[in-house]
Structures are given as structure tokens and as C-alpha cells.
């Protein structure tokens, strides 16, 4: 069996082994397992469930189970089809945006899945027809960086809010530091930071586990009667093929689709090239041979995710941890997929994790996402103004879609009114029209 596995995944050609790939797969899971905790928390909030605008109950357990299942299936697809050590799950950013809208009653769960399905379908078509470069040229570098940065600030905001470290009822203020949950959250943030500085693998996951355990005697963590069980398939039924396409028939849907697509597309592009470089897979021109394969897997993953109640499924940059551990083939992803599949039966164990543990994780993930701000070119005001507007609008209005829309419009307007309109791709001007209508609708 080992010989067949070695031959299929080309171990000898890529200079790896069964043992190394297994360790790499476990390492990748350890670094991205936090998504199984964060995804349900972002989509449902503090409670165990949320009732959407159509009266459909969406439970944390169902979100967790389907997230684990889809992560396993799509990661396995990446392994067998692309033979790459990349793992996939629900990407950070879109889940925060759509979760906040769902909880606020601004959109139905079916509407969210409809928007994500359209985003994924666009991604599939662009990948199949090979027009990736057109999208890359349309969005300026500074705006691409600002999208990730703006989402990072928003995710950090959710971490402060959910953990109680900050309150946002009447402006921005400090939380109640006398509450055990708050000082546990602060401890968790410090622990994650220290472990990361010391280059400890799985720092976020360790922080989550530590706060959860410490929260038991303090009454912050509630221990369930059982730590493993067969999934509640009734709850899953509310998530499967739950489309509500009437939500798509408005101008407000355009920026949401745009944010979903761009977040997935550029995250995948950056992650695939970045992790591929660490694995020594790039050619002499810095390109990844057969890059269309991981792109197609990612795009199909988003479509499958929408059909099963998941926000945008994307390639995780945490795959680099597995690559650093020696992973060079898709077999590392097979191991990661198997562990994700096992988590389907451990939902009570994951759901016991309190907001005091997930909050610090969100804050830290936000920190990781905003680091790209250092790459924004501030030497040219007309290039920096759009990103500035995008980031500020996202932070102070609490809307990712509104912030990104405002940033794109600002970029087009400043270039147009300063006589530098030729520096902007024509398609971006076309995109500005529905984005302006979004604010007026």
C-alpha cells in the first residue's frame, strides 16, 4: 500500500516520504483547526442558534459539522486532483461579513448561500477560460492589499466585541475587566502572541484550548455531557441547498458578490504562489506549473460550500506550516482531510469552547491579515487615497461591503478628477456604477 501511495503522489520525485507527509498533514490541521471553532461563532454569534429572516433555524452544531465535512472533502479533492500540500476550509473575512448580516437580520441564510454560489460560479468560469490575468490587472495592487487589511481590522473588531474586551454600544469603550471571561480572553491573546513569537506550531489552537480549560473552574466554560456524538442531521437539513435567489436581485448584492469573489480569488492566488514558493514548486519565472488545478479546486470548493451551507471555501495560508514540516505532495492534504472528517463526530467538544477563547483567536487572525498594510504605496497620494477610504469606512461603519465599495469608488474618482484616468483599468470604472447604486439603494 505504501508503494502505491508513494507512486501516486510521486514521493521520490519530490524528495519526501510517507512519514514526513503524515507529520506535515497533522501540522497543517493543527494550525487551521481554529476555523472549526471560529466559523460557528461568527455565523451564529453568542447563542446556540439564529433564526434568519425566512424563519429558518441555523445552529452552531450544524455549521460546525458541515464546515468540517466540506473542509475534508475539498481538501481531499485538492490532494487527489492537484497533488498539492494545500488544505482548504471556510476563509476568514467572508464569514465575518455574512455572519454579522445574518445575525442582524439584514439577509437570509439562503440569500448568503445564493451570493456565494454566484461568486464561486464566476471563479469557475474565469479559471476554465483562463482569464485570471484580466482580474489581476483590473484591481490595483494597493486596493488588493487594502481589501485584506480592511477585513483584518473588521475581524479584530469582532474579537474585541465577542470576548468583552471592548464594548461598542455607545461608541468604542473598554469592557468590564472585572469579569472572568474578559481577563481570560486577555490571557489567551497574550499566550497566542508569546507562542507565535517563539514559533510554536498551532499557537492559536493552543491558546483556544488553554482558555477553554481554565474557563471550566471559573464558570466560563460549560462542559457537555458527552464529547462525541453522531451529527444532528435535522439541523443539517436547514443548510443544504438552502438558496434564496431573490436576495440577489438588488444592487446591494453586487458588492457582496464582488467581496466574496475578490477575497477568494486573491487569497487563493497569494496563498498558492506563497506556499508553492516555500515548497520549491515554482519555475524559473516564479510561476506555479499547473496552477489552474488548485484554482479550479478552490473555485469548485466555494460552489460545493454554498450548496452545503458554508461561506467561501478557500486555500488556507496555514498550509505553509505543513510545507515547513516537509510536506511536498497531496498526501499531506489527505492526512489533513481525514482529521477534518473525524471532527464531524466531535461537535460537543468544539461547541463547549466559549467566546473568551474564540475572541483572542479572532483578534490575532485580524492582526495577521492587516500586516500587508506595510506594502501599500503611500508615496503616491492618488494610489493611497482609495485604500485609506476602504480601511476607514470598514472600521468606522462596521461594514466590509460598504468599506470595499467606498474604497474602489474613491480610487476611480481621485484618478479621474486628477487627470490620471488612464491609469485605471476601464472595467474598474464600469464596476463603480453598481457600487454607487449600492449606496443609493
Helix and strand run = HHHHEEHEHHHHEEHHHHHEHHHHHHH
Residue-averaged pLDDT: 90
Largest sheet: 2 strands, antiparallel
Distance between the termini: 60 Å
Helix tally equals 21
> Tell me, what's the shape?
globular
Q: Which strand order does the major sheet show?
A: 1-2
Q: Strand fraction band?
A: under 5%
For the CA atoms, what is the radius of gyration?
21 Å
- Low-pLDDT segments: none
Q: From the helix content, strand content and strand pairing, which structural class follows?
A: mainly alpha
Number of strands: 6
Helicity range? 55-70%
Q: Oligomeric status of the shown chains?
A: single chain
Subcellular location: Endomembrane system
Membrane topology: Multi-pass membrane protein
Keywords: Membrane, Transmembrane, Transmembrane helix, Transport
Organism: Faecalicatena fissicatena
Can you walk through the features of this model?
With 441 residues, the chain is mainly alpha-helical. 65% of the residues lie in helices and 4% in strands. The protein has 21 helices and six strands. The strands form three sheets. Strands 1-2 form a two-stranded antiparallel ribbon. Strands 3-6 form a two-stranded antiparallel ribbon. A hairpin with a 5-residue loop joins β4 and β5. The longest helix has 26 residues, at 253-278. The model has no long low-confidence stretch (mean pLDDT 90). It comes from Faecalicatena fissicatena. It is a multi-pass membrane protein. It is found in: Endomembrane system. This is NCS2 family permease.
Amino acid at each position: 500500500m505504501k508503494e502505491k501511495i508513494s507512486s501516486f503522489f510521486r514521493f521520490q520525485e519530490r524528495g519526501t516520504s510517507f512519514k514526513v507527509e503524515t507529520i506535515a498533514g497533522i501540522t497543517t490541521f493543527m494550525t487551521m483547526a481554529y476555523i472549526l471553532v471560529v466559523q460557528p461563532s461568527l455565523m451564529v454569534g453568542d447563542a446556540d442558534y439564529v433564526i434568519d429572516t425566512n424563519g429558518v433555524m441555523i445552529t452552531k452544531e450544524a455549521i460546525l459539522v458541515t464546515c468540517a465535512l466540506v473542509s475534508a472533502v475539498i481538501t481531499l479533492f485538492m490532494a487527489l486532483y492537484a497533488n498539492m500540500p494545500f488544505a482548504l476550509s471556510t476563509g476568514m473575512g467572508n464569514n465575518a461579513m455574512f455572519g454579522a448580516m445574518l445575525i442582524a437580520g439584514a439577509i437570509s441564510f439562503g440569500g448568503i448561500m445564493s451570493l456565494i454560489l454566484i461568486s464561486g460560479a464566476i471563479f469557475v468560469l474565469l479559471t476554465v477560460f483562463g482569464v485570471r490575468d484580466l482580474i489581476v490587472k483590473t484591481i490595483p495592487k494597493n486596493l488588493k492589499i487594502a481589501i485584506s487589511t480592511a477585513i483584518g481590522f473588521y475581524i479584530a473588531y469582532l474579537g474585541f466585541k465577542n470576548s468583552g474586551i471592548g464594548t461598542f454600544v455607545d461608541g468604542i469603550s473598554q469592557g468590564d475587566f472585572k469579569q472572568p471571561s474578559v481577563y481570560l480572553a486577555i490571557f489567551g491573546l497574550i499566550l497566542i502572541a508569546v507562542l507565535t513569537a517563539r514559533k510554536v506550531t498551532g499557537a492559536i489552537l493552543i491558546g483556544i484550548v488553554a482558555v477553554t480549560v481554565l474557563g471550566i473552574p471559573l464558570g466560563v466554560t460549560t462542559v457537555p455531557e458527552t464529547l462525541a456524538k453522531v451529527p444532528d442531521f435535522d439541523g443539517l437539513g436547514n443548510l443544504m441547498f438552502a438558496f434564496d435567489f431573490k436576495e440577489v436581485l438588488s444592487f446591494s448584492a453586487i458588492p457582496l458578490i464582488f467581496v466574496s469573489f475578490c477575497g477568494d480569488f486573491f487569497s487563493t492566488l497569494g496563498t498558492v504562489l506563497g506556499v508553492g514558493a516555500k515548497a520549491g514548486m515554482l519555475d524559473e519565472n516564479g510561476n506555479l506549473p499547473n496552477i489552474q488545478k488548485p484554482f479550479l479546486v478552490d473555485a469548485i470548493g466555494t460552489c460545493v460550500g454554498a450548496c452545503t451551507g458554508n461561506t467561501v471555501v478557500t486555500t488556507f495560508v496555514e498550509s505553509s506550516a505543513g510545507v515547513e514540516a516537509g510536506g511536498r505532495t497531496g498526501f499531506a492534504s489527505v492526512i489533513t482531510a481525514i482529521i477534518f472528517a473525524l471532527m464531524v463526530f466531535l461537535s460537543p467538544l468544539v461547541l463547549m469552547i466559549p467566546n473568551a477563547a474564540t475572541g483572542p483567536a479572532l483578534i490575532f487572525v485580524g492582526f495577521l491579515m492587516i500586516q500587508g498594510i506595510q506594502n501599500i504605496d503611500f508615496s503616491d497620494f492618488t494610489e493611497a487615497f482609495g485604500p485609506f477610504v476602504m480601511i476607514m469606512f470598514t472600521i468606522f461603519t462596521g461594514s466590509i461591503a460598504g468599506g470595499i465599495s467606498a474604497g474602489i469608488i474613491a480610487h476611480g474618482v481621485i484618478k479621474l478628477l486628477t487627470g490620471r484616468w488612464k491609469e485605471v483599468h476601464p472595467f474598474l470604472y464600469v464596476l463603480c456604477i453598481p457600487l454607487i447604486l449600492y449606496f443609493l439603494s
